[in-house]
Each structure stands twice: as structure tokens, then as C-alpha cells.
Amino acid sequence: xxxxxxxxxxxxxxxxxxxxxxxxxxxxxxxxxxxxxxxxxxxxxxxxxxxxxxxxxxxxxxxxxxxxxxxxxxxxxxxxxxxxxxxxxxxxxxxxxxxxxxxxxxxxxxxxxxxxxxxxxxxxxxxxxxxxxxxxxxxxxxxxxxxxxxxxxxxxxxxxxxxxxxxxxxxxxxxxxxxxxxxxxxxxxxxxxxxxxxxxxxxxxxxxxxxxxxxxxxxxxxxxxxxxxxxxxxxxxxxxxxxxxxxxxxxxxxxxxxxxxxxxxxxxxxxxxxxxxxxxxxxxxxxxxxxxxxxxxxxxxxxxxxxxxxxxxxxxxxxxxxxxxxxxxxxxxxxxxxxxxxxxxxxxxxxxxxxxxxxxxxxxxxxxxxxxxxxxxxxxxxxxxxxxxxxxxxxxxxxxxxxxxxxxxxxxxxxxxxxxxxxxxxxxxxxxxxxxxxxxxxxxxxxxxxx
Length: 451
Description:
By secondary structure, the chain is α/β, with parallel strands linked by helices. Helix content is 40%, strand content 13%. It has 16 helices and 14 strands. Strands 2-8-7-6-5 form a five-stranded mixed beta sheet, with helices on both faces. Strands 9-12-11 form a three-stranded antiparallel beta sheet. Helix 8 crosses helix 9 (233-242). The chain is globular. The model has no long low-confidence stretch (mean pLDDT 94).
């Protein structure tokens, strides 16, 4: 059962079917444009949507809002250093700000940034500076039915081929995301990270990690990887971080807070340059665009997220929802990942061709059926005019916020998804009527085919 008691509740209500239809039309069939009050169960993202603990709220009351040298920054910095071993820690208002700082320094026009799989803002920051994001996930990552336990792994032979080939000089750094959000919240094994680290350092390339879900990844290593079951999550985490030269983090995931992040590095000279940009874009280095009370909440949340009782329940919730859907025949990404269940769109809606935007059509239909808000992870999110990847996935993510929903909520979600699955042949496609050049999934507008 939940390893916590509920002290504060927020009322929610189910909009009527007519209200849901009007909301879809007003939002241009893009669920990012919905009002929160129009959503019954919100699975759009697990980022910044967690419930904070009593200790975190107590810490918020101890905010030392000094512009420079706040004691909350001292707590934050010491916590990140202790957990990760990175000596230089710079707070930011969220993960994409950390990515902005890192890629502005590291990547330039014509460079290549390999990764297991780039997520949306990471990819956008690489493209923004004129570099090329390159996905090198293992082949099993592109097979939703594969039972491979570590589908987030980077394909090491492909990385070696790249670094030793004619384009090797264009690689300024290697980035690995743990867990791999784009590929279904799938973990990266410790063995794979060791090999990636060895290859990077043999070729003189720094290795950086996106560690926004590091605790979930470490839990999977502990439970799935041979020889790791007797180690604690923080212990596994320290080895993971020890293999890298630095990291970015959105603390809105495994920091269990509503806002915040950081960039960390071992490189003292790089840290000095990052600090200059931090002051320009985010704020003084001891607050980095955050209220100091938020730094206190992060330092507490980072420790709570590595508690194995919490992680057992957290990942157990994802597995519970996945099992409810699988029993009903709903095609999902297997095995279930760490922060959500991903529906396999091509198997869910085989009657809709790619040009009818089946992922977005499924997102819309889940809201229409039961006011559930989810997110498309596929052609709309990543097909922004750049050369499409040789291999790709078309998924709909049901991201579960941390410490927010109960078993009853998840049973309701499963009921709604199974209802859409039962009438899947009647789901209509969409067309895109308005979109920006990049990150179009946030603000694009759609219309049903024939309208």
C-alpha cells in the first residue's frame, strides 16, 4: 500500500461529455491547451506534478531569501554533492534551463550530439545551436513488445563506429538519459553505462547524463540487473554518477518538487563559464532563478526520492496500471517503465495511417471518453521538419504523477482506455492546422478530418 498518509486533498470533478467536446474544440484538439479544471485525471506529465511531503512543506517555511549566500543553497549544494559526487553545482529554474546552459557551451553548428534517445527540449536545444541530435538506442528500444529489461541502453558498437569514423571529430559530448523517456521510460543498465563511459573517455569525449529520473533507473538496476540486488539505490546512484563528467536534472521529477533543476560538472573551467551564463539568464549562482525556499524543498525531495519504500510503491503503481491494461488486451510498451504506461499506437489504431496523426487522435479520444489528459510521444513531438530518424516510435504516454493518485484513479484510467480500445475502429484521424517550427506539440492546433 501507499507508504504515506494523505493530509490535504484537492477536489476534482468529471466534466460532462458535452463539456468535454466543447473543451476539445476550444483547445484545437491539443490537450496542452485545456484548462486544468477541464481534466478529471491528469496524466499529461509527471514533471512538476508531484505531491510534496510534510517535510518539504516545512522546509519551504524556512526559506532564507537572501539574494546571495542563502543557507538553503548551502543545503541544496551539499545534498547534490553528496548524492552525485559532482563538485560544481549550479541551480536553475528547471531542467530545460540546465540544458540551455550546457548546450550553449558544448554544441555548435555542425556538431553531433549522440544519445540513447533525446527528449523534446533536449533535442530542441541541440537543434537551436545548429548541431545534430543523434539517437543511438539499442534495437530492442524500437520494439514495444520486446521484453528486454534495459531498453534504454545506448548501442555501444554504433557509438564506437561514430567516434572512430569521419564524423567523430564533430562529437563534442555524449548525452545519456536515465530513464529513457522518449522510449517508454525504459532504464539504462549499469553495465551499459560502464561501457559507454569507457568508450567516451578512451576517445576523449565527455559523458553527460540527464538524471531527472535517476532514482527510478537505479531501482530498476537493483531489481533487474544481475549482481545488483544487495546494493542500495543511493549506492547504485553514486556509481552511475561516478561514470560521468556531469549531468543536468529537472528536479520536477525525482526531486519531487513543482519547480527547479540544476547542472553539475567536474570541470572547473566549464563551471566558471556556465556560472557567467547562469547569472545572465537565470540569476545569481546561489539561487539560479528559484526562490530559496524551493532549493530547500529540492534538497529534501532528492533524498525522499531515493527511499526504496517510496520507489517500490511508485514503480508498483506503473506496473499495476500496465497489468490492468494488458489483461484487457491493450497493446502497451513492455516491460512497463518507471514513470508511466505507454500505449503502442500502431497496434492500438492500425486502421489510421501516419498522415492521419493516430497518436494525437488517440490522445483526443481518451479525453473525449473520460476526461483523461495524456501526451503523444511520436511524429508530432519529434517530426518538426528535421530529417526523420531511421527508427522511430509512436506512443501515447500515461505519465503518473508521484504521490498523487490512488488505486481507484488508476482503475478508472484503465476502464477508460479499455473502452476506447473496444471501439478503436471508430476513432477518426486528425489534421494539423497550425503549428510553430519547433516543439510544436505544445501549441499546435488540430481539426478532425473532414472539418
